[in-house]
């Protein structure tokens, strides 16, 4: 299972400037019996735009 940590850089598209490098600034995880759902808050390293992305892991 891959964990995301604050400060990690990930490849994801910015909808504002189309840069593809984002930095994780907050991770909110919710645990269910069979999976973990994480909301990643990503900040564009180029323009600073914030957006969120949901990721799921099997437990
Ligand atoms: Zn951007």
Please tell me the total number of domains.
Answer: 1
Per the CATH scheme, the topology name is N-terminal domain of TfIIb
The proportion of residues in beta strands is over 45%
Low-confidence stretches: none
CATH A-level architecture: Single Sheet
Morphology call: elongated
Describe the structure.
This protein has strands at residues 9-11, 21-31, 35-44, 50-58. The chain has 59 residues and is an all-beta fold. It has one domain: ZPR1, zinc finger domain (N-terminal domain of TfIIb), CATH 2.20.25. A four-stranded antiparallel β-sheet has the order 1-2-3-4, with no helix packed on it. The protein starts with 8 loop residues before the first strand and ends with a strand. It binds zinc ion (ZN). The site of zinc ion has 8 residues, from loops.
What key attributes describe this structure?
single chain; mainly beta; N-terminal domain of TfIIb; 4-stranded antiparallel beta sheet
In short, what is this structure?
The protein is an all-beta fold and 59 residues long. It has strands spanning 9-11, 21-31, 35-44, 50-58. The chain has one domain: ZPR1, zinc finger domain (N-terminal domain of TfIIb, Single Sheet), CATH 2.20.25.420.
């Amino acid at each position: 299972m891959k964990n995301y940590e604050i400060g990690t850089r990930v490849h994801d598209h910015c909808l504002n400037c189309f840069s593809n490098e984002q930095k994780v600034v907050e991770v909110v995880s919710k645990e269910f019996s069979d999976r973990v759902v994480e909301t990643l808050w990503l900040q564009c390293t180029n323009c600073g735009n914030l957006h969120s992305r949901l990721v799921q892991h099997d437990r």
